């Protein structure tokens, strides 16, 4: 999308399940909700990891998982405070799976679809995004954000080192 398209909030098109949907920039309030959701991603991930490990997980390991999750969440919060907004690198790193997963693509796609398709729920969007089309959806979102191949290769999330690999 061109700079003028962003400035005027011109919609971009995304085809899912044979139907064309219009992407548009979310409202400030909706984007704020997404920022909070991004910030909480490490905590959600830690909770899933601990739950999957079961009751036999030693307290010391559980504590380390939570400590890392809180540190990652605080790093995201600091980045948001420094930039004043969620920047494209944060969105891209999250879409690439650094702080999330398919869930993140679904959430961001829903956010960009809300203005033009207010009746679509997150569950509706989740039903439209499949293993076969998730790459297409991610590519469409990246193009909508105006990210280039160089941007995609150079983005670093709060829980990634300079090599682009997540710390796990």
Key features?
8 helices, 6% strand, disordered N terminus, disordered C terminus, globular, 168 residues, two-stranded antiparallel ribbon, mainly alpha
Describe this structure in words.
The chain has about 170 residues and is mainly alpha-helical. It has one domain. The protein contains eight helices and two strands. A two-stranded antiparallel ribbon has the order 1-2. The N and C termini lie far apart (about 35 Å).
**In terms of quaternary structure, what is this?**
single chain
CA-atom Rg in angstroms: 17 Å
3D shape: globular
Number of strands: 2
Helix percentage range: 55-70%
Sequence of secondary-structure elements: HEEHHHHHHH
**What portion of the residues fall into strands of 2 or more residues?**
5-15%
Sheet with most strands = 2 strands, antiparallel
Strand order of the largest sheet: 1-2
Low-confidence stretches: 1-8, 155-168
Number of structural domains: 1
Number of helices: 8
End-to-end separation: 34 Å
Q: For the residues shown, what is the average pLDDT? A: 76
Would you tell me the structural class of the helices and strands? mainly alpha
